[in-house]
Fold each of these.
Amino acid sequence: MVISTPHPYTQNPFGTTISADDICNTLSFFDSWEDRYQYIIDLGKELPPIDDSYKDEEHIVRGCQSQVWIDSVYSEGTLWFQADSDAFIVKGLLGVVLAAYNGKAPGDILSFDIEEYFNNLGLMGHLSQTRGNGLRAMVKKIISVAQLTD
Amino acid sequence: MPVRNIFDIDTVRRDFPILHQEVNGQPLVYLDSGATTQKPQCVIDAIVDYYSSYNANVHRAAHSLSEKATARFERAREKLAHFINSTSPREVLWTRGTTEAINLVASSWGSENLKSGDKILVSALEHHSNIVPWQLVAQQKGAEVVPIDVTENGDIDLDALDTLLGEQVKMVAVSHVSNALGTVNPVQEIVQRAHYYGAKVLIDGAQAVSHFPVDVQSLDCDFYAFSGHKLFGPTGIGVLWGRENLLEAMPPYQSGGEMIETVRFSGTTFNELPYKFEAGTPDIAGAIGLAAAIDYLNRFDRQEVAAHETQVLHYAIAKGEELSGIKRVGTAKQVAGVYSFLLEGAHPADLGTLLDQQGIAIRTGHHCAQPLMERYGISGTARASFAMYNSVEDVDRLFKALAKAKQFLL
Ligand SMILES: Cc1ncc(COP(=O)(O)O)c(C=O)c1O
């Protein structure tokens, strides 16, 4: 996949150098919640911060607990995402989501089973139906973008 | 002669079966009673007993089960009337909860008593449930909802109230206890000042009734609303208390079965209080369950319960001062039930997640009080909220877990 001009979205390690499988493999090594959450927090540190100009009404996904901002571009059959949050663990979880979705074709995004992925990671609670769950709302946004471009 | 139980925290904890379980591999510490309280076994039993031995519709049928259900249902209303020292059970209306109670007043009282240019004062501390219903009726009537500011420490600014009060103010709606900060508001004082200008006063007692005795006569308020589920009772049931003369003059809120006297196509007449406001089959099990919760509370000397809760809350406040980085949000003169805080440099949502992993249930976020959060320039707080079954050991677990979370986040 080549984008003609270097674009900040392709600099995002999630979905490029860190894959969903990598995250599954690493998380399966850990027994304790401490190790798992330390890893998720560390993942969050690798998520490139979104430019402040994107932190506006158009890009916000509001949750009761925390806020998430997301932006997407579509280029040559591929969707690229940038996402950020004001909470560290949510940031790590955004990385987990983007590892599955970033730099993928819309069709691949639509066929990916995010519930099973989170279930396997033991993180299903974070994708729960709780009202105002920012992460779930973000997944919905990604899917609707994929449906638009598919 | 009623027998009082001496308050003993271990005995009380045993009465609440849900507390004795592990969450994420750790013994549960439940510090989210502000959202909903847990239920003692006697409440659970009362609901089971109703459904297994005398379930029937109330006020309708001519058979024995219905008579028994009706008697218990109305006895529940009497208990609730007594609980808040209402002069009559006719002033006690069943609702689904605080939110519906406030909507009832805003809609029914508001439709008759508000006109263009009128003002409704609500404090900046309020839960959205005590803001939005007023905004809706204000919009319909051309009235205005005006916030009463709070001071930096989280008390309602009584000077600001005085400045706002005037002829055009028809309603002052304030919480008895703030769900976000725990502030106990001087509602008696607020009632006096509002009544001087002829304004009515609604008190949102959702966070008050479980913590200390409430007496609507001595408060001298006009409406008092609360939820059963925050008072050790079931969800789906709540109370609106209103002054009889006001309720009499108000039009029905919803209409249909049981709230009607006669229905003809030429015109319908409505049943007397409280039934005028209770359209359709009520939450019978809920009312009976809530009455059982009141019975449970009445087993104790409520001053003793309050003293225990104050001890636990003040212990939490003191522990918070010892752990560096913890900043308490709201330092009102008098507080009940709530310890709201931030860990500097960490997001409350992250704290919530890391505490949950350690078996500690708290709430994080804006607590349905966005105007208040805006007042403080924050997006939310972490909130530990307490009930009679919480112990100082719970507080110790909270702070141990916070110290650990801090290592992760800072
Ligand atoms: C102060 C206050 N008012 C109103 C409500 C709404 O109560 P309910 O959801 O039971 O109607 C709550 C509950 O969170 C509250 O804390």
Amino acid sequence: MTETAPLLDVDRVRELFDLRGAYMAHNGGGFSPDPYPLWAALREQAPVHEGTLHALTEGAEDWTFQGLPERDRPHFTAFTYAACNDVYKDSELFASSANAVDPTASAGVESSMLSMGGAQHRRYRALVQPRFTPKAAEWWIRKSIQETVDALVAHIRPLKRAELNVDFCAAIPVLTITGVFGIPVEQALDVRAAMANPMDVITIVAPLVAARREEPGDDLISVLVQAEVADEDGVVHRLTDPEIYSFCILLLAAGSGTTWKQMGITLTALLQRPEVLAAVREDRSLLRPAIEEALRWQPTDPMFSRFVTRDVDFHGVHVPKGAVMHIALGAANRDPARWERPDEFDIHRPVKPILSFGGGPHICLGMHVARAEMVTGIGALLDNLPNLRLDPDAEPPRYVGFYERGATAIPVLFG
Amino acid sequence: MPEAAPAEAPVRIDRDLCIGAGQCIAYAPQTFVHDDETTAVLREPPHDAEADVAAAVEACPMGALTLRSSVPTE
Ligand code: HEM
Ligand code: SF4
């Protein structure tokens, strides 16, 4: 175990991870009503509506996320599971970006595989997919997840009380990814802060890339510097520095905020249902189903978007080429055509695939890592914090946020 | 190259479509595994509950899996 306590500067963690703070304002961090009843009504009216998700949702503002703002394009939003699934499954009709991607252009998410399509996307994704399989999740656990979780729990355990959302959930994914990159713990928060400005990420990552080019090790940057990719003409080349930086920026952006918030959502759902928490504590095989059910019921990112590549009649609506199709996967995950009592959090449901990690070729690369982080993290809390419960004298956690949802503070007592 | 699955295999895998995302393994770990090209192959013998195999087939993001009608259960 690392000598930690505290592993990270707690005040800085709080500032960087406050969902309602300025950091998240652009995607609706301050939104606090429950959007699900409104989305259910919309889903009932029609599978696909004209308009963005925030414009269709009362009380929401002009926030940005994937496929937004794009003010010159018409916007549509799919609400049923069938419609959302159809968008994901046809990645030619519904493309991940409006323009072709030049991976050798300046580094950033726009140059990363998130924005690519077809064979190009497949070539780039294949370079890293082997390190993101269910089996490879064990490598992630050994390399950084277990150590991070153990250190955080050791820090919390003697205190008898804690705030789990920021002091536990938020820290795990950043330290997991930076650990697998080979970025030292002291720099982990700099990385989080730098994410608002990709150039700052490059400043941190560039020396590591140079060092691994000299001497590769057992880490993700070494995988990237050794990777070879064929271009359109079949010419094989090693990844350039900008290509590697784009990968790093994408992985940091996609992997740290999401898992943090999803773990907080899951813990909140369990802590607010002490009998369910007790059942999971008693029978640890219920932890995975609990995590999956929280993903279905309250996904941290309830919407992703695609660009429509030709005119199409889609689930009863004419959608023109050039439009943006938003996938309200949060609404799809509660489609009564697919789930009984869809608004209930019920960990005993029959197993059924959900859309919380997306679908089609861009399905979340990190989903098995995210699941491993949540199983390891929540499992360690259950193992080490007896009688874990919400602090009855503190403000109870609530779900907030619009395009990035999560829990407010999760104050707990134990022991 | 697509490997012809034995006739009694519960699922057919289209190796050209598979991107190695591993959803099948998450839902039915006793039935699917990745080979060293990170492409899904069937375990010998596959043994998950029928519902889990069906979930795996549906969860494949690429539609690379096809359920055969006769799925052996445990
Ligand atoms: C619970 C946590 C997570 C959730 C809910 C989540 C959700 C998603 C979703 C919905 C997508 C699809 C985006 C789209 O349709 O355009 C996606 C893509 C992606 N995710 Fe995650 N994610 C999580 C954790 C992670 C982690 C831990 C990593 C990395 C370590 C990661 C890396 C990625 C990458 C690289 C992509 C882009 C894949 C591609 O374009 O082929 N995610 N994620
Ligand atoms: S879920 Fe589909 S794409 Fe992913 S490994 Fe299995 S067969 Fe391949």
Amino acid sequence: MNARLLPYVLILPVTLFLCLFFLYPFVLVSKQAFSTGAGFTLDNFREVTGYWKFPITMRNTLLLAAAVVPIQLALALLMATMVNRMKKGRDLVLYVWTIPLGISDLAAGIIWLAIFEQSGFLNSMMNGLGIVDKPVNLLTFQNPGIVFLAIMLAEIWRATAIMLVILVAGIGLIPKEYYEAAEVFGASPWKRFLRITLPLLRPSLQTALVLRVILAFEIFAVVAALGGTLFPVLMGETYAYQFDLLNSGAAAALALIILAISIAFTLIILRVLRVPKGATI
Amino acid sequence: MAQIEIKNVAKRFGTYQALHDINLTIQDQEFMVLLGASGCGKTTLLRIIAGLETATTGEVWIGGRRVDDLAPKDRGIAMVFQNYAVFPHLTVFENIGFGLRMQKLPNDEVKDRVERTAELMHIEQLLKRYSGELSGGQRQRVAVARALAMEPDVILMDEPLSNLDALLRMEMRAELKGVLAASNTTAIYVTHDQVEAMSMADRISVMHQGEIVQAASPIEVYRNPAAEFVAGFIGNPPMNFLPAAPAGDGKWSVAGQVVDGPSSGKPLKFAIRPEDMRPADTGLTATAKVVEPLGAHLLITCEVQGSMFRAVLDSDMSVKPGDQLTLAPQPDRMRWFDPDTTLAVA
Ligand SMILES: Nc1ncnc2c1ncn2[C@@H]1O[C@H](COP(=O)(O)OP(=O)(O)OP(=O)(O)O)[C@@H](O)[C@H]1O
Ligand SMILES: [Mg+2]
């Protein structure tokens, strides 16, 4: 086999697979989004963006991402650094911390619902401690803050581990000689983290953030379980267009809007965390 | 003032004893070279002094302070790492200035010192590059510059010139020595290149299997090796050894020849440097096997009573393989070793 052709031949099956099950549906969705039966039109986009709920869902989605992702990043960095310092029991701790990864987002939402709902753990605890005299319904439209907080907590609990595993792998790739050199030349542990770990972790940070941000814009099941209609997000609206209003053109348009936002953020992240040529490990 | 004292330092990695009871004092402003074969524990000792490794037992004192519990940055040292450890994400400039930035020196002083040391190491034209864009030798010089820029009391260098070509190495050797002498720095310099050791050191510590066998001036190490290992390690070609049997009254029989030696009753090893042999009428009878002209000299590998023996003779001698030679050892250059302890016998 020609050595120059071989790589292309080897990636052919995957490429075909992706074309068949990703590119083709994508083209179909785009077609749906840009047509209402006859020819090219932006009507679907006008419809979804003109709807009164659109700014709210957009704001909610972005707000949630802005609140959750930085906390997850900080937590994941902290946890990854701690795991990396461990000599014994490292793998065990890592397994325990990544358990939420194995749970579907809907199940995660339901777990946190079991904590926050009127007959939930939190209420029984507060009741038992005498903080409240009868169980209260926390997740109502009167308590938008608590709803938001519950969704945040569920998301942080559920999806920090995905960043953690990427960052643990990335930190493991940084040779320890750089830390030793930094130590000899006067860098405190905090400075070593800032000046060595963070910059050398940029490729992993890119991957972790891109993945996490995309997932944050796709949030759906956790919100549905905890907030229902109290906290509408973009993906929930897409679902509603498709299955409640049976307007697949509008659903397709909204899906493309979410895709565009994801791509925009991906590009920003890649740009901000880029590594100059020649500056890789 | 930075005298370094290493007291009874031993290091064990699991069951492997990397260093055995090291005792060494390096005077203030001395240039000490650690010389030894690969794996003898040079890097380990350096890392213990730097504080990157903790000794299993023993103490390290720098400038009259016990430093075993101090962090590396509080020991007043700078280090050149064997594998360079040049930060890949920083430019050469920021690499050299790293320690100065950590000390929060003002920008113009950082710039000044970085440029000065870069010039010294001939890398001033590389300041804007990243380490991925440098050759091994250039990276190594960045590592040296980074340590020099700190102007430390003590500089620890782990084979800092190993990756340079012969010419540049010779030049750097001289510059480094000059800079360190002018800056009153105490230096510990690891190498396994004996020419480098000889030419730079105030004193050489010869290490062997985790022990310091001899610590003395280069000429002393060369002329009066304290142990057989040193005699066989230093010098190119190294010393010759022949078995010697006592012939009474301080006389020794070496390869059928009687020479004067120490007064000892048991068999010893006779040792002599190849260049300390002279063609003569009486002496050791040698059969030439290989003759290598080295320009100024002839290196002759021969056989003396079944043992391999090398002699360096003047190149105007005409010697062919198979020739019989009679070689006389210079009396004041003969050395003797105890075969049991391997130590020198006076
Ligand atoms: N972290 C470690 N764990 C186990 N053994 C080690 C460790 N570091 C060094 N050693 C062992 O200790 C011995 C001395 O190592 P060291 O690196 O000090 O050698 P060296 O004299 O610097 O050799 P070289 O000239 O090849 O650099 C070696 O046998 C090495 O295998
Ligand atoms: Mg070494």
Amino acid sequence: MIRTEEMLLNVGPQHPSTHGVFRIVLKIDGETIIEANPVIGYLHRGTEKLAENLQYTQIIPYTDRMDYLAAMTNNYVICHAVETMMNIEIPERADYLRVLVMELGRVASHLVWFGTYLLDIGAMSPFLYAFREREAIIGFLNEISGARLTFNYMRIGGVKWDAPEGWIEKVRDFVPYMREQLAGYHDLVTGNEIFLNRVKGVGYYSKEEALDYSLSGANLRCTGIAWDLRKDEPYSLYDRFTFNVPAFDSGDAWARYQCRMAEIEESLKIIEQAVEQFPESGEVLAKVPKIIKPPKGEAFVRIESPRGEIGCYIASEGKKEPYRLKFRRPSFYNLQILPKLLVGENISNLITILGGIDIVLGEVDG
Amino acid sequence: MKGLAKGLKYTLSNLTKQNVTTQYPDVPLQMPDRFRGIQKFYPEKCIVCNQCANICPTDCIQLTGNPHPDPGKKGKIIDTYDINFEICILCDLCTEVCPTEAIVMTNNFELAEYSRDELFKDLVWLDENDNNVRKENKA
Amino acid sequence: MVNDLLTSPPGWMHAAIFFGLGACLLMIVLGFVTYAILAERKVLGFMQLRPGPNRVGGRFGLLQTVADVLKLLIKEDTIPKAADKPLFILAPVLAFAPAFMVLAAIPFSDHLKFSDLSIGLLYYIAISGITTVGILMAGWASNNKYSLLGGMRSAAQMISYEIPLVISVVGVIMFSGSLNLTEIVEGQKTVAYMFLSPLGFIVFLISSIAELNRTPFDLPEAESELVAGYHVEYSGFRWAFFMLTEYVYLFAMAALTTVLFLGGWNPVPFLGFIPGIIWFALKFSLIVFFMIWVRGTMPRLRADQLMEFAWKVLLPVALLNIFVSAVVKELFLR
Ligand code: SF4
Ligand code: SF4
């Protein structure tokens, strides 16, 4: 008689493909996963609690560290929340700059995802190609904000710096260049049969499941629900641009891949239009009081980050510091479906599925 | 098969392309002017208003001041000024609030040290850190 | 000279000479490994728009691998407490020894060969199978779950791919009518077998990449899944032995492909004035470059797809190849 035994396999927190310090305890039978228990919290820094003792301006640099791949959207969500509470009118130029940096950030974030996802699947080169373009974007953001990842660029009422001379032109020239490179990525990866075999039909979930698990971003759009807050609840200036919300309905890792690649193109469209409409001159910071004290009350705003819906809830008692601050961090919610998806898959698929969700541990753990 | 061939073609065509890497640290990395690096401090400009220490989100600035030695003048002069770079996040807020631009950013980013103690920079060190000072400090 | 040695009766003198020659070959192989690793890193680097190793040994990093090996030599040799000690120590040896043994059968040129086995091809395939045992042993003895999975995967993979590998060369054996590698090369005087049995060549190339555990078939050590697969727990020089095995096999497999399908040391028509050994080296380098190139491009297959591919695609194609080869032989080689 052959006796088989289940085995407990601990993946992470130090593992090349858990994208940081994610840990998952697997019960496996051979290579088949019977049960998966994610363990999170290795990167918990208590951003929300810390914020209760910080002035609103001081919270902004902390948000940079949540989703460190697309910090601009995090900057924006907190500023947007405070501005909504205080009814601050943002100068047009500042708003355009915000849109530009957010969309650049989105492209950069998706590029990192693209590269690391392919690295997970075993192809090494796409990572380096993607980082070449990302480096260019990081360069732009560095030029305008003074940091490569932790921008701390937005302020309540606008942005800290105006665009440096020639910056807008550089961004304009970047768009066609990026399109060309994107075509190269499609040559290298999208048609690759091995890649297709790895992602097609892997990690499938249905529309209903996606909604039940409160998924957002590409993880939701891959099931065919074209829900994008930029389109459906336009904030900032997004109602001024024409762009599509790519949605694919196969609900698997392949749809998520297509979705993100298509989103890069849509972001480029937005960047192109924003550069075109960019006002000649103007203020970049509204007149705001030196000490920011939102009135008593509460507000919740949500925007579309590269990973999904990021929300910010503020309860204010009219003081310099918030009474309570809460971020709806999309990676955290998107991750919840993982244990369900993993049951019955093998270990190679674990990597494909986990990578496809696109988590950033800084955001999951908060 | 076609997809594989396309991919092979793409990598082959990149074989002869120019490298995109930089030869850091052989060639120093030039950061754009706005880059936020280690601060430079001008003791003579500081009026000991404490604003920088108050705004700092990580509480990493410690400063003390003495009364002005010239009894005719009001105000204070700086005595000690320390920034703890173990926790400074180079967020730019201190330089943003300083009314006299006594604390400004430089473009130097090389903070690696062999000991944690060395990350504790004092007034003298910060004063001497005067190359690559950022040209434009206020938006 | 070698031919004389091979035909003369055995004796102590001969043993010593052969030992010396073997040591020479080992040195050459080690030299190759050193520069194959460098070449791999350089070519990958260039493909990925970066310079690759460029600090130790001048602009081209010529001494990088030497430095790496030196580092491995002086590293602490750790053996996990829960490991099966004798097996753990034996595994790298068992993996490496066959890798070097197979080289004995390969003729590098008309005069440069170390043996002239009449069943050279069979010898190669049989001996190289032993490495699987070494790898499985390493995976088991480490007492680490990742290495166990890696070891299992590699055993399954190597066994499945050995079959199409062997069957794909049946065509070649039919053409040459011999298992002797020298005779196989001699048979390719006019036309290389890669043109006569292109199907066999493709199947052989793919299975050989799988046998070598290289991307896209690098599942046993799948960096992103199993961390490093069967050699997770190895460090220092034991680990170096596994690396060495891998690259010596790369050497052997590229040489075998050259011999079987690319015509060995036979020159391309009209360029006969270039010595055979150089032709061999050129063809050989081409194969090595191809393997590196594939590594720079492809993602990794999944374990179940890998098996399916071997049994459902490669094997039938290899069988078909036998049939096609027979027809070709009847029609053109009469
Ligand atoms: S840069 Fe930020 S963290 Fe550093 S000292 Fe200034 S205010 Fe504090
Ligand atoms: S804000 Fe400027 S002037 Fe005031 S204490 Fe700080 S460095 Fe001195």
